[in-house]
Write a structure and sequence with these properties.
This is ATP synthase subunit I. This protein has 4 helices and no strands. It is mainly alpha-helical.
Length: 125
């Protein structure tokens, strides 16, 4: 069985790798600085949302195991506020590409699928 923390840690490592490439693109390619900065903002906010959701899922699973009835949510409002904040930052400053910010927000969430498939293949072998 694959643990949630192994998938989250693998996605985090991959997101930091992508952030490093975005920072190198920002430093070495001045004509692509708006795109690189948009990716940096989007990947950072997406990674925060991804890790926050994993904490909430872990809390819900712990409460499901317990016998007491306690109300908990998945933090949708917090995650949407972080996303809106990243988009507002991209809109406010002209030196940030809004499309790269949106792509960076989705990229971390999309990376979870191939990472979990690779992790499941590794666990079977």
């Amino acid at each position: 069985m694959i643990s949630l923390s192994s998938i989250v840690n693998a996605v985090t490592r991959l997101a930091f790798f992508l952030l490093a490439f975005a920072f190198m693109g920002w430093a070495l390619l001045p004509e692509y600085r708006p795109v690189s900065l948009g990716f940096i903002i989007g990947i950072s906010a997406g990674l925060f949302n991804f890790r926050y959701l994993s904490v909430k899922v872990k809390q819900v699973s712990e409460i499901a195991v317990e016998t007491q009835s306690k109300r908990i949510n998945f933090g949708f409002l917090t995650r949407i506020c972080i996303t809106i904040l990243a988009i507002m930052f991209a809109i406010r400053f002209d030196s940030v590409s809004i499309w790269a910010t949106v792509a960076g927000l989705f990229l971390v969430q999309v990376l979870a699928v191939p990472v979990s498939i690779i992790e499941s293949i590794r666990k079977k072998v």
